[in-house]
Amino acid sequence: METEGNRYKMFSRRSAMLLGGKFSLFALLAGRMYYLQVIESDQYQMLAEENRISLRLLPPPRGRVIDRFGIELANNRQNYRVVLVPEQTQTVEGTLASLERIFKIEDHQRKRILREVGRKRAFVPVTVSENLSWEQFARINVHTPDLPGILPDVGETRYYPYGAAFAHVVGYVGAVNEAEINDDPMLQLPGFRIGKTGVEQVYEKELRGVAGNSQIEVNAVGRAIRELNRQDGQAGTDVELTLDAELQNFATERLGDESGAAVVMDIFNGDILAMCSTPAYDPNDFNIGLSAKDWGGLLSNPKTPLINKAITGQYPPGSTFKIAVALAALESGVVQADHKVTCYGKMRLGRHDFHCWKRYGHGEMDMISAIAHSCDIYFYDIARKVGIEKIGEYARMLGMGSPLGLMLSGEKPGLIPTPEWKMALQGVRWQTGETLIAGIGQGFVLSTPLQLAVMTARVANGGYAVMPRLTRTVAAPEDLDLEDIPPAINPDPLDISAASLAVVQEGMNRVSNHKRGTAFAARIREKGMELAGKTGTAQVRRISRAERQDRVRKNEEKQWIERDHALFVAFAPVDAPRYAISVLIEHGGSGSKAAAPIARDIMHETQKRDPSRRLNPSVKPSHDKPVKA
Amino acid sequence: MSDFSMRDGKMALSQKLLELNWLLVLVLCTVAGIGFAMLYSGSNGNLDPWASRQMIRFGIGLGAMFVVALIDIRIWLQFAYPIYFIALVLLTSVEFVGTVGMGAQRWVDLGVFQLQPSEVMKIALVLALARYFHARNLEDIHSVRALIIPVIMVIVPAGLVLMQPDLGTALLLVMGSAMVFFTAGVRMRVFGISLVAGLAAIPVGWQFLHAYQKKRVLVFLDPESDPLGSGYHIMQSKIALGSGGVFGKGFMEGTQSHLNFLPEMQTDFIFTMLAEETGLVGGVGLLFLYAVIIAYGMGIGVQSRHHFGRLVALGVTATFSLYVIINIAMVMGLLPVVGVPLPLVSYGGTAMMTLMIGFGLILSVYIHRELVIPKRYTGLN
Prior knowledge:
- The complex is a heterodimer.
- Chain A folds into two domains: 57-240, Penicillin-binding protein 2a (Domain 2) (Alpha-Beta Complex), CATH 3.90.1310.10; 245-284 and 310-472 and 491-613, 3-Layer(aba) Sandwich (Beta-lactamase), CATH 3.40.710.10.
- Chain A is 37% helix and 17% strand.
- Chain A is built from 22 helices and 19 strands.
- Chain B has helices at residues 13-19, 22-42, 51-70, 73-97, 117-134, 138-142, 145-162, 167-184, 188-208, 211-221, 230-242, 255-258, 270-303, 307-331, 349-367; strands at 99-100, 106-109, 114-115.
- In chain B, a hairpin with a 5-residue loop joins strand 1 (99-100) and strand 2.
- Chain B contains 15 helices and three strands.
- Chain B is 68% helix and 2% strand.
- Chain A binds chain B through residues 3-4, 6-8, 10-12, 14-15, 18-19, 22-23, 25-26, 29-30, 32-34, 36-38, 40-41, 43-45, 47-48, 51-52, 217-221, 225, and chain B through 137-139, 179, 182-185, 236, 238-246, 255-256, 259-261, 275, 279-280, 283-284, 287, 290-291, 294-295, 298, 301-302, 307, 310-311, 314, 318, 321, 325, 328-329, 332, 334.
């Protein structure tokens, strides 16, 4: 068997070679395994984890905004909506067709739905329609067996129960834009709403809370399998405002169609009880979606509904400024309260005539009667004596000329002019005539309704630098930052003597409660609730000589846009002051006719609602129909 | 050494049973058992749908293996060519009659079961080649003329399979046959020339590849280029495997496989699942078991006194080892994805059956290793 032996040897030898070759390949494989499973193991473990763990954010419910009695001004309402899950339908078109039989779907809606279905995975729900009414929602719910793939769902949207009355103060929420994105991952969630204006914006962080997260194990197509871990976040904190919702509603209703503002505040602790600006808009519209036409309407409305006039509107204070001028004069020692001026209706300075609003003059005036009758000549006189710098100093002491720190966006500082300011701005020297005009609150002087209320409060509370506030505290857990802690309840005393204040207060008292006071017709008659105020009429445009010749003198005869603004400030009750108010009516014509009656009604209501007045807590204040002057 | 008549060559059944290499059977069952465990894990703790079926198939396969083993080896020798021709006919006919399935393998639905002619051909080719070389002297083989017939015997079925188009099986046929040629004694330089020719033919052959096959090769060379497509499988396989570490994540705890990140985990990528769950330890362990089987197969070949037996044992073992190497290399990113299952472990009926019949032949060789069979064998008397 020689060949047998040969080929046997050949076979054995070569088999051995093959076996060796195979084993070396095996060793190679084992080596590769070692490489992957030992050397590169960490990297692969990390990739494996990345594969399978998906982090889902759990946004907490947004904190509410509530008034001082707990009434909700902004809350989260259930949003009834319908979603479509493509993989649960037989065909998407089929289900949509069935749905259209009971629920209208617009063409562009349909297109959007189909587009999203194409883009997303089959198990991801696509929103069909949101903000359904209860009937629509109920109807769809009844038909769900015939609508495969249609899921009724309840989400949450922000809702403002009182709508327009709080639009400016509370503000609204809207979609996040690029400038607002920061580290907070919640801002990247689709459809997330962030505060845009008002309290919603200022206290955004507290209202938003902290997102929780849940670690979900997912499979290769992203479908959730199970939850691995969950970290609860923190619910948004409620923000409690000092506003009295029912009072604000009353005031807004009382302002009616006028373009104006009203501010009511506590003179000791600075609580703002009401801050109204009319006309306004319904912030709920921003959630549902505003048509371009409606938005354009808001923008072009000459009564500027989008602006919070209480803090953004800057107006010449008119005769209300006389309060500051009087205090400046008394404190500087230039004049005493018994300083007398005889008013003939006009006064000459240089080449100009300066007129009093009363054509033929008031006769002899002292400080208190000058305030009560709002005599312009008197105040031209003392203004000239005191000088614009002193006037400015005391105006600033009373809170004018700079923002009052409410942090609401749009707050304007007003303007208290100085010679330096004028030189810097116009390069021209200050004229004495401008001091005279400033003395009656015209010319360059500008203030906001809030500043006028604060001025009145500081006068009424005995000369303390009270600062207005919208919240007392925001109840926050320890690890959230508290922005701007509200100012102390014990404000610093101003450098104004009690005697001077008493003079001004008496003057204001006579404005309202003496027969010849400019606002006597708008006084509160109820005993113990009397108010003391000051009228103001701010010229928008000087009555030209030509018009005077044409006998167009009266405001009522002018176009609305050219009529003077009407202002009124007051504090109450006179015998133990507690509240201050300022009311502005744009182009109202006359402070006493347009603004004072509104202020009276609001002040009356404010005092009626005062808990310290009620002996029997179960007796609610009566809601009399407001009496128009 | 067993004592029975060399000349007569007939053994009693009971003797044959005793002669069976029970150790090899044991290792085969162990590997199959590992397969069952992996399929159980892959179904998240269910015998259905894979483990139970596989067990049944393995049972049937075991039965077939014993039957084949107990049949006299000389019968296989006698029927080698006829079997080959039948396989060839089936392979040809399926081109026209068969249905295309997964992995582009065609089969014929015979009602009771599905027959894949390419699988039959794997065994048939080994038998036919072994038969051919058994009848030749070593000197004969050194001449090129003698090689023409066996080469044709390989190329024709390989070509038919390639047309299916099943590149993987075609390559297996060719490589397995090459190993038989090698151990049969074909000159080394023939191999050298063929290798060179083969390499030279690659650019030409490249044109003939289907688009998806080309893509597979390209993606193999750079898996990152197609991370969501074919590159995805390899990347996921490496991630799953690598994240297993030395000791694995634990039985049934393979996150990647269970969360569907790993595709085809019951077939092509079952080794990955094993490596993920049992780590380096498990992977090398299975490799070791395979090495044992291969060593046994080769050893049996060397122990056979007749050439036919040697070549059959070698041929089957070589094919088996190719499966193992290609599959494991593929799941680790060392070779392009070619759809070769891991023998005895991957879920799949036909491949299992082929393998068991192949091992049956090896065992038959072992039982009848003492036989002397002349070159020109005419049949049992």
